[in-house]
Amino acid sequence: MDAPWWQRAVFYQIYPRSFASGRRRATGDLAGIEQHLDHLGWLGVDAVWLSPFYPSPMADFGYDVSDHRDVDPLFGDLDSFDRLLAACHGQNLKLLVDLVPNHTSDQHPWFRAARSSRDDPQRDWYVWRDGTPDTPPNNWVAAFTGGSAWTWDEATGQWYLHLFLPEQPDLNWANPEVVEAVHGVMRFWLDRGVDGFRIDVAHGIGKDPALPDDPAESAGMPHSALNDTTETHELLRGMRKLVDAYPGDRLILGEVFLLSTERVATYYGDGDELHLSFNFPPLFAPWDAGRWRHQIDDASRHIVDRYNAWPTWVLSNHDNVRHRTRYGGSEARARAAAFLLLGLAGSPVLYAGEELGLEDAAIPDDRRVDPGGRDGCRAPIPWGGAPDHGWGVDEAWLPWPPDADSRNVAALRDDPDSILHLYRRLLAARRSTTALQTGAFARLEPVERAAPGVVAWRRWDDAGAVVVAVNMGEDALVGVEGTVLVASDGVGEGEPFGGVLGGDRAVLIVPR
Ligand code: NOJ
Q1: pLDDT value at position 394?
Q2: Burial of 213 (C-beta count, 10 Å sphere; 0-12/13-18/19+)
């Protein structure tokens, strides 16, 4: 029972523009989230990660922060934030806010000052290099634009670095004043009572001072997916110390966007860097049993065995095509995938709307707004079947997701066979089965040939054991006997497992 809360917790990501409007507007806001917290309680998740709501010119929809200590009027104000935090805590939900420490908006007062003159005291808060306007300092590629990660500042005659848009200049973490400034931001939110941070681009903040070219074999890859330097680890240790000094097990969950689980694992440090790290290679794995076995074994080997750390699992978020769409669109697969997310060893992070089985919205050209082409997964959550889907406006900032007339919270809540109820049953099973939260883990080898598409594993502790089997292939024999606790198609729950698992189906079994 001494595992920290974040090892037992299921996290729920809310993208505030798209969740709910409390003010009958086309974009969501903090009041809308507060009004819909009962959905999270009913569903049975434990913690919320809230994507940025800070003042922002919205070049990257809030990941370009122009004031770290306030709320953009689009979303509300600091009072509405405090109300939301209190409401979360009133419902026993933890709340993480998004910390964006790698870069700011170019409209942030820090960058305005830095850009104003080479002699400005804040000049060195960002990464500037001499040169000539035709040759950037190195070959680093920016995310989203695919162009250089350097922009020439005409007025002051130097280049500045931006791993993302030119409107998102990178902070210079080699400058202790920057470290102090971001620590101040962290204290501001911790003092308000947040339970921790999801840290944006956590692996990106330290830069190799020599700024070496990226290798030729990664040509075209954004440097943000390659930056992996020793400098960052010391900086993360500083953040960890700060957070650990607060009472109540505050958490740092880092976005380490490196495409190798082995490298991701290093950001847990010696128990003194990130408490939790996203691990994206599984998110990019297709619906293929061999590939998933490999991802699962990688997480065990590198994160658990090598670093004695706690994995996380994520299938969808605001940056990627939703997993139901990626896996081919069938609801059966989306249902079976929930058993991966909620059954593997580690902390799951669910993206709002996946419990509805949402697919990406089709975005007509004239409604595309994101420079990174990520609009489809950011479609607004449909709360009801009426034309406004509970938003009070007929058209939200992005088109509704497919079939919103029937695939919405109200309709799925009324249907006990829906995917929404499946998520709820799985979450309840996880809550009442400690083996699923913190139990030991062993992957079961498939009954080869008979079941090449089956990914199966066992979880156990002193209170008991469970087996999870997910079938990514054809109907197959699974060599387990016992009672079905939850089935992805809802068939046979509470009954003995028949031995054959259909393709694109999953089961949670209490073995005999
Ligand atoms: C990762 C965030 O999840 C993404 O939405 C953002 O565009 C980049 N970091 C840059 O902040």
Answers
A1: 87
A2: exposed
Nearest CA to ligand 1 atom 6: 63
For the Cβ of 170 lying below 6 angstroms from any atom of ligand 1, the answer is no
Q: Atom 11 (ligand 1): residue with closest C-alpha?
A: 63
Ligand 1: does its nearest atom lie under 6 Å from the Cβ of 429? no
Q: Which segments of 60-146 are extended strands (E)? A: 94-99, 128-129
- The model carries a pTM of 0.98
Whether residues 152 and 195 fall in one domain: no
Q: In this model, does residue 449 exceed pLDDT 60?
A: no
Q: Is 451 found in the same domain as 392?
A: no
Of 399, 427, 455, at which residue does a domain stop? 427
Q: How many domains does the chain have?
A: 3
In a domain, 116, yes or no: yes
Handedness of CA 103, 106, 107, 112 (dihedral sign): positive
What is the predicted pLDDT for the residue at 448? 54
Cα gap 437→342, rounded to integer Å: 9
**CATH code at 489?**
2.60.40.1180
Helix (H, G, I), strand (E, B) or coil at 49: strand
Q: What is the pLDDT of residues 84-133, one digit of tens each?
A: 999 999 999 999 999 999 999 999 999 999 999 999 999 999 999 999 99
Backbone dihedral region of 108: left (phi > 0), alpha (psi from -120 to 50 degrees) or beta? beta
Q: Where are the beta strands (DSSP E) in 177-306?
A: 196-199, 251-254, 276-277
- What is the distance between the alpha carbons of residues 497 and 477, in angstroms, rounded to a whole number? 11
Identify the domain containing residue 98 by its residue range. 5-104+176-427
Query: For residue 238, what are the contacts with CB-CB under 8 A and spacing of at least 6?
Result: 179, 183
Instruction: Specify the pLDDT at position 70.
Output: 98
The answer to whether the beta carbons of residues 33 and 14 sit under 8 Å apart is yes
Token output for 118 = 């080479």
167 lines ligand 1 (CB under 6 A): no
Distances (CA, A) of 249 to 7, 94, 242, 277: 11, 11, 12, 16
Atom of ligand 1 nearest to the CA of 63: 11
Does 377 score more than 70 pLDDT? yes
Residue 409 CA to residue 6 CA, distance in Å, equals 27
* Residue burial 237-247, b: 16+ Cβ < 10 Å; e: rest: ebbbebbeebe
pLDDT band at 356 (very low <50, low <70, confident <90, very high): very high
User: What residue type is 405 in one-letter code?
Assistant: D
Q: Is the pLDDT of residue 315 over 80?
A: yes
- Where is the domain boundary, 380, 404, 427? 427
Tell me how far the alpha carbon of residue 407 is from its chain's centroid: 23
Ligand 1 pocket mutation, candidates 51, 165, 319, 370, criterion most atoms within 8 A of CB: 319
CA angle 53, 57, 63 (to 5 degrees): 50
Q: How far apart are CA 268 and CA 309, in angstroms?
A: 7
